[in-house]
Structure prediction request, 612 residues.
Amino acid sequence: MRRPERVRSHLSGPWYNCRMTKPTYAIEATDLTKSYGKNHVLKGINLKVERGTMLALLGPNGAGKTTTVRILSTLLPFDGGTVTVEGHDVRTQPDEVRRVIGLTGQSAAVDELLTGRENLTMMGQLYRLTAASAKARAQELLEEFDLVEAAERPAKTYSGGMRRRLDLAVSLIATPPIIFLDEPTTGLDPRSRIAMWDIIKRLMANGTTILLTTQYLEEADQLADRIVVIDGGKVIAEGTAGELKSKVGKDRLELTFESTAALEKAGKALGKTVVDTNAKDYTATVVIQDINTDVKNTLAALEREHVKLVSMAVHKPTLDDVFLSLTGKQKAAEPNDQKKEAK
Amino acid sequence: MATELVFSKQPKWALAALDSLIMIKRSSMHILRNRDQLLGTFFQPIMFLVLFASVFGGAISKALPPGVSYLNFLLAGIIVQTLAFGSSTTAIAICNDMQKGIVDRFRSLPMSNLAVLNGHVVSDLFRNGFSTVIMLLAGVVMGFRSSASLTDWLLIAGILALFTLTFSWLSAIMGVLADSVEGVQWLSFIIVFPLTFASSAFAPTDSMNKYLKLFAENQPITHIIEAVRALILHRPIGDHGWLAAAWCVGVLIVAIPLASYLFRHKTTK
Prediction:
């Protein structure tokens, strides 16, 4: 029901005409560089986001994610390279860019003394909506983001999750076709995080182009069409979640036994599916290629040899694993890495 | 279900003016919702007036021209001092915005950047106007009487408004540059306090030493105080009126573009 109507409301905006010309990519950054004195924050970032898709910018703290988003959203000048958003040059046409983007930053940028509703209508009017239209849209967003009850309360009384929802609602007030989400779930409790994911998924279903930054592999995996991994101001890998994961490695099954003898017996039973053993803890690690068959087969093999298990745990690949496999080093080894790059 | 969005189609300057109006509304709402500050706005002028009139009144009245009561002499000085201190809240409000993500939000919108500063400066004018009215009422209760005509009062209001705008724009520059609210408060105190005391605000300048007198008689705040005082006491205004206006307009011509330049520049860091 809602979907075609929302798409139509895109077309009523001032970006109607630029949608007609249709540049290939909604966001395009080429050889983007940025330095603060001798501190080279971005060392040549290349990004392309196709219209209507989500790109996740994945990286640890200090990788340059926020700097990139601030540049793409016209907030920060940059040193080298070109950036276009919906075909508009960020440097020479910042106002045109601002009309087609919404930004949800890391620190929820809402006015704490104003109520949720006042925040929404004010921002709507600043987006050039008429007062009546801003009001109607505010009501719609309050309903959509489950903020109706809190609508007349000052935003400073909101919980962390509510504040983020309000912040995101504010960026959507004029239904911009492009949204930047800078770590939208950092610091949220699990329930608020899942609520936020649902909202983001709905946005995607409406055809919004999204650039999301995150430090969580799981988040990028859950939401994004494509993932760009950055570290130390450079893109170190990109692809779909599946492509990256195959580079990173699969889920692992960690099996703990009661003795060295049991561990050895298990090693024989499981053969070459075992990738790692730890004699001290009596543990063996098995790579899971297919969750539906491999766990069952592993347990069946142990059962056949009458090996008793003490415990069993599944480990998902983490961001650490990404860096381990992409750079061949732990994150702690990063300074060395950068020195090499500098040469 | 989704509502059709309607965008206003107005010329650029009209939209920029609308941005400022929206921001003025926002800052005014801040003032009304900040209860502690509002109480201060109400009581501080009364406290100043009562303290100065009763502490210095007896001693200083001997140095005044005959027929002028200290309360009538003091009111112009204390109003200008209160306005000077009051305009530092512009700096605090702007500094507060700069510390939070809200400035990034505004800057990512297709709005006029100057609107944020405009909002704080103009809403501060309202708040200071309120302070001044409270002070005058308190003065009347304590025995202040003026022979000023309606035209005189309109002139007084004009001079005071111009002065407040000037100080608020200077204050805006401070708010943009400062790194913390504490810093702003400290800085505005050490600027405003000597400026207002080394003037004719609380005592005639005749008894000051040579250098202090030279400064006190020629600095802008004295011209403003003397212009307002002459109007209140219905005396000849002399050169003070046009000098006061010239100072304010001169400072504004520099301060407004400087504040907006610094605002754009600083926020892009």
Summary: Residues 1-19, 329-343 of chain A have pLDDT under 50 and may be disordered. Chain A has two domains: 2-246, 250-316. Chain A is about 40% helix and 25% strand.
